[in-house]
Amino acid sequence: MEHTHTAWTEYQKQHQQRFLDEMLELLRIPSISAKSEHKDDMRKCAGLVRQRLLDSGCDRAEVMETAGHPVVYGEKIVDPGKPTVLVYGHYDVQPADPLELWHSGPFDPVIKEGKVFARGSADDKGQFYMHVKALETMVKTGSLESNVKFLIEGEEEVGSPNLGTFVAANKELLKADVILISDSSMISMETPSLDIGVRGLSYIQVEVTGPNRDLHSGTYGGAVANPITMLCKMIASLHDENNHITIPGFYDDVVEASAEERELMARAPFNEKEYKEDLGVKEVWGEKGYTVNERTGIRPTMEVNGIWGGYTGEGAKTVLPSKAYAKISARLVPNQNSRKLTDILLEHFRKIAPAGVTVHAEEHHGGEPYMTPIDSKGYKAAAKAIQTTFGKEPIPVRGGGSIPICSILERELGTKIIFMGFGLDNDNLHSPNEKYNLENYYKGIETIPYFHRFFAQG
Amino acid sequence: MEHTHTAWTEYQKQHQQRFLDEMLELLRIPSISAKSEHKDDMRKCAGLVRQRLLDSGCDRAEVMETAGHPVVYGEKIVDPGKPTVLVYGHYDVQPADPLELWHSGPFDPVIKEGKVFARGSADDKGQFYMHVKALETMVKTGSLESNVKFLIEGEEEVGSPNLGTFVAANKELLKADVILISDSSMISMETPSLDIGVRGLSYIQVEVTGPNRDLHSGTYGGAVANPITMLCKMIASLHDENNHITIPGFYDDVVEASAEERELMARAPFNEKEYKEDLGVKEVWGEKGYTVNERTGIRPTMEVNGIWGGYTGEGAKTVLPSKAYAKISARLVPNQNSRKLTDILLEHFRKIAPAGVTVHAEEHHGGEPYMTPIDSKGYKAAAKAIQTTFGKEPIPVRGGGSIPICSILERELGTKIIFMGFGLDNDNLHSPNEKYNLENYYKGIETIPYFHRFFAQG
């Protein structure tokens, strides 16, 4: 065994620069799934992922069609009798706006102080690609002990609208004993952690219409309901003075975390002073009665992701606008149901529309919350792999983000999901200057082969 | 006298098409004062106004520099001993956004159903140009009985930041017995009216900063104050349940309209059903205890003119943004002071900033409210002119809009202002598809010479 480890290390050391160059090549493709003008980039990116899977040891790799952006599937079957690991990832990225806040081009990766700055570096190109290079390492050093399948999709950032259909239609192809995902973060390199859950998501867009045209705010101001003001009143009413969400039924299905889990969470290292300094805020905020980690882990939340209406250009324009808009999303926890909560949100906004305006609310996308048990073979293999390369047992934590496909994958494939993320919370996911630390990238490539070994042997 | 009238009518009829063509030429220049990229268009427009003043009978016309966009001055002095009318207008226009709502190009004037559709058609190019063509009519028919001066500025739509300095430095040049402005509307062609006042304006921009960068709403949502939500809470708090403005001190200096004035206002024709139908709203809105006309005439109001923050593009992005912004303006009535109210607004927003965010509020521009007496020689000349061409005595009304320069002009020149607007409330001022009815344009050109005659004789 020690021999193999040395061989892995040696191989990875030799090919370090190429492993990085290949990741940068992926990052140069602006594969923004939300924007229709990037349709060709999406296809180009899928093609490159397929080629790299083949180059890295897959026996088979294909770009497979869906009703939206294509999925890339790949596999390396060493022995059908051996356990199979299905690696899920996504090659699509979030939009890069606001562009003016980036220090370098979002699709011109720059390496600075040991970090790769580019959209998608941590979410999720840099992370799923660790698995591709881990496969290469195991194949080239003759040490692959499990079968490996890859399901790399192109619509994660828009809520995976077509992946459920794809997975249902390809159950046999995707059959596996465990699903492994690196699309999340750990507390720090000094305090490795493994996510045991992700929050669900309900995302809606609200359109408020006042008068049938933009009006002069002098001629009409004071006599006609202003849709911006009305939208603000609706948004302001979503949280009470304790920052509890006021929408009727919102908390109905929430399973309260046990005292034991909250006790465990409280032991995870957290420095509020550093947290505030990192974010540049004087105060943290949130639901009364819960700590910062609880607010982002075990509690459902509601955020306005965007708002616009009226004149937003240079200078002053005295308009009373016809329309105002907001994008609003809720993060959900077990056992909230995304479909049900989306309906509750849509209904709520329609119901609270003030007199004088009309409200049109529609669904963007959603995803179910997901939890994974810590006594499974998969979790134990992940914990042991982390222990091996980090020298420390990982802390189990609940992640605040959402991977909408989790509940669908488990339902369709009957397989548990293991979250083994190597990112950090300050990777600027979904923000300008997204980055991924090279140390984390290489540590991931080093750690993943152990997961396969321990899972195959376990 | 009847001879002259016939001569005017005859002359105007003969030159009707050219009077229109010249207006359209002005409308083709995108003289948007708020946008720096239109600086050259502003200068081009000023040059054309100067040329037209000379062509139309002025002895002298000049483009005069200010610290911002230039002023156009022109004059026709028939006899220094005769009364002098100073015509004020502006050649700058509001921005044309949102462009997608225009049925034709904002700077490609189109004539449809007797209306000129173009930005600036009613506000104010089409209106000030009536005075230029009225001068031409009087000069060419040998019937000008007063001296005429023109002060056509280029910064009205951005709050006339440099006109005060200009007027103070040119008191002698601008000396007049009355100031005449056509930059407002009348009730209808069947119910002519004369504005006896305009509201003042205090316009501010608010910037709310939460975290120092855009964050992932999953990782941080629920634990960090969202600047959009906080901005909405602040905006929502500006009006109470009766739509009174809640800002301390806001109403302190308001002079309540007399019971007599409110009684007079109530007699002006107003059809709430038609008003709502025209605007496409189910309900009117506004301060409890006041009618629609009172809300837009005698009461101060507060409108959000624009709001933006976070992701506003296609699709969904799960961001908790760093910043959110709003443009907010108040309309003021006698004796509110714009400077004082702006300070009250700025201070209020800084004071109500919720914990977890910082608020930066700054001034855009302002203007004082203004009232003109109905027993003056100027008002009487205007009323008689309207009576002559409309066959009906005009109703005195308070306009809801603002002409920030009024109080400055009166202070510097010691002269009262007469508002003789020929627009209509549905001209879509500051909105897409701004229009000016040709009937109103020609009626204005027909009426204005009577004002000069009655004022000179009065």
From TrEMBL, chains A, B:
GO biological processes: proteolysis
Lineage top rank: taxon: Bacteria
SUPFAM superfamilies: Zn-dependent exopeptidases (SSF53187)
Alphabetized UniProt keyword annotations: Hydrolase, Metal-binding, Protease
All copies of domain Peptidase M20 dimerisation, residue ranges: 203-355
UniProt GO MF annotations: metal ion binding; peptidase activity
A Pfam family matched in the record: M20_dimer
NCBIfam families: PRK07907.1, PRK08201.1, PRK09104.1
Protein name per the record: Dipeptidase
